[in-house]
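Lecture 7, part 2: worked example. A protein chain together with glutathione.
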Amino acid sequence: MKLYFSPGASSLPAHIALREAGLAFEAETVDLGSKKTASGADFFAINPKGYVPALLLDDGEVLTEGPAILQYLADRAPALDLAPAAGTRERYRLVEWLNFLATEVHKSYSPLFNAKASEDWKNFARAAIDRRLTLVAQTLERSPYLLGEQYSVADAYLFTILGWSKWVNVDLAKWPVLETYAARIAARPAVVTTLAAEKAAREQTKKG
Ligand SMILES: N[C@@H](CCC(=O)N[C@@H](CS)C(=O)NCC(=O)O)C(=O)O
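Predicted complex, written out as structure tokens:
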């Protein structure tokens, strides 16, 4: 398997999941501006959508969309419970969270990173983030992880999004439970290793 990623971007949950699951993989960075991979390949030829994450499978197929990739990876290591078993009620709760994170939270951050987005759009997005994170915080007041007592790939996704907050002045201090939660996820060995690998990749990109 090979993950196409960009340091700190929405490919980070998949990168974390690969390490949490203990799967063998390669990884290659993508310059999202030029749409070139580190080895100079045209990223559009790999993923016509032009965005990360993209996961090249061993049979040559490419899987895209974070929520699909996260479930695929979790299902490769079923004993680790990174996702509830397919067909169970809990699995639909996972899908519910992944979809909520992707469409309601992640995509509310996107305009804040976009220099061309209007102030009105950004204010609208900030208000949405405030409402969504308040809801997420209410869940995490009741349990350590989104699905309750069990860490799942949805937590890797939420952790990634929360990490963007500092770049776009979303102050998490309003929700102390989210700060505690992010610190808990950051301490997981697979997360520590992944963040170190992404930092090294970012520095390599700067040099190159
Ligand atoms: N729907 C995609 C969205 C992924 C996404 O937003 N990727 C961003 C990085 S955070 C990206 O690669 N943007 C570059 C672009 O769209 O040109 C998913 O859920 O995986």
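Residues 9-10, 32, 50-53, 65-66, 102 surround glutathione (CB under 6 Å). Strands lie at 2-5, 26-31, 36-37, 54-56, 62-64. Keep this in mind for problem set question 3.
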